[in-house]
Fold this protein.
Amino acid sequence: MTATALSADTSALDTYMERLGIAAREAALRVAQASTAAKNEALRATAGALAAERAMLAEANARDLEAATGLDAAARDRLTLSPARIDAMIEGLHQVAALADPVGAITDLVRRPTGIQVGRMRVPLGVVGIIYESRPNVTADAAALCLKSGNATILRGGSEALHSNQAIAACIRQGLESAGLPSAAVQVIDTPDRAAVGILLRSPQFVDVIVPRGGKGLIERVSAEARMPVIKHLDGVCHVFLDASADHDKALRVAFNAKCQRYGTCNTMETLLVHQAVAATLLPPLAAQYRAAGVELRGCAASRALVPGMLEAVEEDWYAEYLAPILAVRVVDDLDAALAHIRTYGSQHTDAIITEDYSRALRFLREVDSSSVMVNASTRFADGFEYGLGAEIGISTDKFHARGPVGLEGLTSQKWVVLGDGEIRT
């Protein structure tokens, strides 16, 4: 390609992205003012369009799968838009429609001695940019949450799911238009050109916040290049600590589920910590369950002494987010040692303790600085659906503006409101 042609292509892409940004800004004003009824109507109409267009969705997805010759089995699974996943998208839209609308809600209203009332009102963020990989169902989930929270959104899915995403986008447009809302409230970038991502990240005049959903490489790039706030998490190095007072049945059940219910998720346990007082009782039966499930175990010296054949863990294993049937195991002296390990190697995502000791449970809740901290429950519960948020836009391990699974409230901000009756300051 000549320099002149390259310049022309770049200019065309810039123009296209600017057009999306301008349309999103205009749509954001209208969506922020839309009634709850109109937003819910759009969501339900979109669900109806998805149900009516199953054949079109399947055909588009088949084209993506046919072209995706270089993907491994896990990536192809994420890309596949099965009938069950179409059903899940439809159900997700209905669930979001049934959720309370956060926009305009006033909380913490207090009357001051001067007579004024001071409170806070929830308001949309504006335009939300979402960059994600593989999973085309994210298109429907993200659109639903952004719309219900009064935001416009620009979505950029992976190039491998281009046809699937565009098919879903067509159904979303039907839903918006049937409810009298602007179709530009949800726009899906229709070019596979990777340069579009960079332009989006450099457009704070159009986009108020960016949400990356995907692998660590994508999230690191977005965090480094974005000129607007980013809602994200980098790693999901999740721990389960089996305390000395743990109920044995609970410990075995939760520790197995936290690892084996699904391997490739950010809330899957990657390191098991076991109190030395119960290691000899709990580790051998747990190891047998893991091995039967095909999980490779990598442990410290004390763990390997209790479980013959366990591989040796090296320093990198304690930091690892395997997203695979591999588990790091460490025997620790006490709760202090478990807390120190999590502080050193954790990613502030999700950590759990299995214990029957109330004071230790409270201490774990207070001292583990993660976005989700659990007592006697599997780390796999750390997502928006299980928390009652409906679909989620992602999980944040940042301290601001949202933390943990990000649902409708996480896609809004708050402003101070003051209600008076002619009061003046003296």
In short: DSSP finds 15 helices and 16 strands in the chain. Residues 216 and 234 are 6 Å apart (CA to CA).
